[in-house]
Specification:
Rossmann fold; two-stranded parallel ribbon; 11 helices; 4 strands; 45% helix
Length: 244
């Protein structure tokens, strides 16, 4: 969530070999009500692809599948050959963007500082399940989520990308995606930027320092796991408030 998936969704919908429903976030595998009896009716899922032309590669974009623990075994049981693409954004700025999105939608009464302080108690109240909404820090713990994904799918069926590359390295990103999916290489016909909105409040220097401290071990672990250099993420987290 808040990692660029809507932008990627619109780009991939332009590909002539791919069909993605016009409605983003199908929310089939994370909808626990549909799985109350242990097995959902796949016809509801297939209905989202009813308009797909023959021969297209089918896909959808529901970011919470990565985070919501029951979703992965359901996806694996449905299609163990499924390919998964994940976009990871700097978790420091992602947390603030997530809060701002929920806040502007009317779902968060607390300031960002208050919401960060409230998250541990909110998570405790959600136990033994997960905190589904307002998990501003929790959803940025990527290494745990990747480890869980790889416990259900081999790594070669997953592609982990950086959100930053949507703006700075789009052509190489799309080359990797096309090779991963086995479709023709292409360039999007038009640029698309999703969910750009003004912020309800800037991130304070105190909150930026707090998140940098929380996420530095996670970012370092992600660097080791993926062979990435995320020094720019940490540098961004160290910047003074008001510079973002």
């Amino acid at each position: 969530m808040r990692g660029g998936t809507t932008t990627l969704f619109h780009y991939l919908r332009q590909h002539p070999e791919i069909f993605i429903p016009q409605r983003k976030e199908v929310h089939f595998f994370d909808d626990d009500k549909l799985w109350r009896d242990g097995q959902a009716d796949y016809a509801r899922y297939h209905a989202a692809f009813a308009r797909a032309p023959a021969g297209r590669l089918l896909g959808e974009a529901t970011p919470i599948y990565m985070y919501w623990e029951p979703a992965l075994p359901r996806i694996s049981a449905y299609n163990p050959a499924m390919k998964l693409i994940m976009l990871l954004r700097n978790p420091i700025t992602r947390a603030h963007s997530d809060w701002n999105f929920v806040r502007t939608e009317g779902g968060e009464p607390l300031s960002f500082h208050e919401a960060l302080a409230a998250e541990p108690e909110r998570a405790r109240q959600a136990a033994p399940g997960q905190l589904r909404f307002k998990a501003y820090v929790g959803r940025g713990m990527y290494t745990q989520q990747l480890a869980r994904i790889w416990s259900f799918f081999p790594r070669e069926q997953t592609l982990v990308l950086r959100t930053d590359d949507l703006s700075r390295a789009l052509a190489p990103m799309f080359a990797r995606i096309a090779s991963f999916l086995g479709v023709a290489h292409f360039s999007p016909a038009r640029d698309f930027v999703a969910h750009a909105r003004p912020y309800e409040g800037e991130m304070s220097e105190e909150d930026r320092r707090y998140l940098a401290g929380v996420f530095e071990p996670e970012i370092r672990a992600l660097e080791r796991l993926l062979g990435w250099d995320c020094s720019d993420w940490l540098a961004e987290g160290a910047r003074r408030a008001g510079e973002s």
